[in-house]
Amino acid sequence: MIGTLYRxxxxxxxxxxxxxxxxxxxxxxxxxxxxxxxxxxxxRLMFDYESSALTQEVAGxxxxxxxxxxxxxxxxxxxxxxxxxVGFGAMELGSVTLEAYSGNPKPRLRRLPKSKALxxxxxxxxxxxxxxxxxxxxxxQHRAIVGISVxxxxxxxxxxxxxxxxxxxxxxxxxxxxxxxxxxxxxVSCPNTFGGEPFTTEDRLQKLLAKISSLNIKKPVFIKLPIxxxxxxxxxxxxxxxxxKITGVVIGNxxxxxxxxxxxDHLPAxxxxxxxxxxxxxxxxxxxxxxxxxxxxxxxxxxxxxIFSAEDAYEKIxxxxxxxxxxxxxxxxxxxxxxxxxxxxxxxxxxDGYENISEAVGTSS
Length: 365
Ligand SMILES: Cc1cc2nc3c(=O)[nH]c(=O)nc-3n(C[C@H](O)[C@H](O)[C@H](O)COP(=O)(O)O)c2cc1C
What we know:
- The chain is α/β, with parallel strands linked by helices.
- It has one domain: Aldolase class I (TIM Barrel), CATH 3.20.20.70.
- About 40% of the residues lie in helices and about 15% in strands.
- It has helices at about 1-15, 20-35, 35-45, 85, 130-135, 160-180, 200-215, 230-245, 280-295, 310-320, 330-335, 335-350, and strands spanning about 55-60, 60-65, 65-70, 90-95, 110, 115-120, 145-150, 185, 220-225, 250, 275, 300-305, 325.
- An eight-stranded parallel barrel has the order 3-4-7-8-9-10-12-13, surrounded by five helices. The chain has a three-stranded antiparallel sheet with strand order 5-6-11. The chain has a two-stranded antiparallel ribbon with strand order 1-2.
- Helix 6 (about 160-180) packs parallel to helix 7, helix 7 (about 200-215) runs parallel beside helix 8 and helix 10 crosses helix 12 (about 335-350).
- The longest helix is centred in the middle third of the chain and has 18 residues, at about 160-180.
- The protein starts with a helix and ends in a 14-residue tail after the last helix.
- The structure holds flavin mononucleotide.
């Protein structure tokens, strides 16, 4: 019922306004709802879904369900108290960077309704790691796992390889010194940054991870990968991840491809940014299958890109993802999607004779 209400009443109104304006209002509303026990309780009652069939221990962390919020929706840790009540089992906050960045010139968020996609050109806008940590320290929730996505400060001062590596290093070093977050994701694949995507070659990723490994991080560390590389280039990054004993890979980021078969809205040629949602779905799914087949025993896979239903979520699980993340599906379908996916997954697991979600991981690969 909430879904029907969202799609027929709320969404048509929200979609009349500028997407960044709406996103900012949603952050304010979510932050407000997260401040009071009564609003948290009511949100949980309306949206959350619990099932023991969905719980997993992954890399020493307890996930109450596999549905996580992908990085980029809550860049500055505004929603930490409300996201678990909406039904998320995990939230990847950020991407946060060592220094703050006020964002690329507007418009930096566009909707492509016919394509079920967004064009994202924020360029790693965030308040910087020190303010981010201070905010994160003010929360006390324990229902959902908190991941912190770390990226390179978007600035001409971090454009060289050496400066870039140092920037990632100092950001992680600060997070480590504050003992905050359950896991880290190193976002090497943000397509909208100064100096491009510099750590998405074998050689550069290796240098970055060599430096980071000197921090001797004990928490799980994931790497968020791009989805537009050739399979050889992608495989080379996976090999580096395995060599450095990285916990897992998040597959993946926004697509840079402007495939006319997938983009059905008018998109001006000068509209900059990466594309989320349905156009990422097949790219992500194929890479999940590839990774599971070749590195399934060495890397935990977090499947992201174009999840709009429980069936989409289950497809990624069966291809080899242990955990999932989403943003665009929630924007197009409504916040009840998170609980709907959990409920739907439970039904699909039962249909296929599995007692726990972990049994379904990789069954179609
Ligand atoms: C508004 C927006 C901002 C994003 N910002 C980030 C980011 O800061 N860091 C990151 O790793 N990914 C970012 N992403 C990519 C998402 O985490 C995700 O990989 C991608 O959107 C595909 O998932 P979806 O189809 O469920 O949206 C962003 C996506 C959106 C829609």
